[in-house]
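**Reference record**
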Amino acid sequence: MIDSYYLFMMDTLIRNNQPMKGAVELLDTLNIRRMPFVILTEQSGKTRDSLAERMNQAGFHDIRSLDIYSSCMAAVDWIRWMYPQKNKAVMIGGSGMKDALQKGGLEINHVTPDWLFLGMNANLTYIDYCDALQVLDEGAQLIITDGRKTMIKENARMIGNESVAKMLEYASGKEGISFGRGSDRLIKQGMKYYDVPSENITMVGTHFQKDILPAAALGMTTVYVTQGNSIVDLGMNDECHPDYIVEDLSGLAK
C-alpha cells in the first residue's frame, strides 16, 4: 500500500456495473487507513449521486457523491477560474451535465452562450448538430466532456462523443477544449481536491496513454493496472513508464 492521496479513473474500479478485482477491498482499506481518494469520470451525463448509488449497489461501501469528480465539473471549475466573466453556456448532455453547470454557477443561455458543452446524447438529429454548429459559428467555444471515440453498448460498437466533437470541430474550423479522459485538464482539476503537491498524489488507471502518461507528466506517482493484458507495444521504455505495474487492484492493497 502506497501512503498517498489517490486519484482513480472510474472504470479502473467498476465496469459493466461490476467491481473490478480487488477494487472493493482497496477502497475499504483506504477508508480504514483514512487515505483520501477521488474517482474521476467522463460520464458527465450522470449525476454524482446516481454514480455513487450505482457503485454502492454493485458492492462498494459508503461511496459518497463527494468522492466523484466528473469531466463536466472539471470544465466548469476551469471556466470559473480562467474566465469568470464568461458564464453563459448551452449543453448537449444529460442531467449530470445540467447539474454541474447550475451548481458551478454557469447560466444556461441559448441566446448568447460563451460555451457549448458537448456530452453524449444518442437522440440528437442532423438538425440538432446543425444548430450546434451555428452556436459555434456565432462565437461559442466547444467544451468536450467525453473523450470516447467509440463505446460498446449492448455488445455493439457505437460512435462516441469524441467522434461527434471531431465532426463539429471540422465543420466549424475551431478546435474544442477537451476535459475527457486523456486530457491533463481533467487530472489537473481533480488534483485541486487536494491542497498538496502532485508528488503526494497517486494516479491509478488502466489506460497507459490516457491515464498514466498525463499523470506522470504532472509529477504524480502512477500505478498501471494491466487487468491481465500484455504491456508490450504500449510505448513503455526506460524514460516513460509507470512507477508501479499491478495485474489487479488487490496487488495495490497489499
Observations:
- The first strand starts at residue 5 and ends at 9.
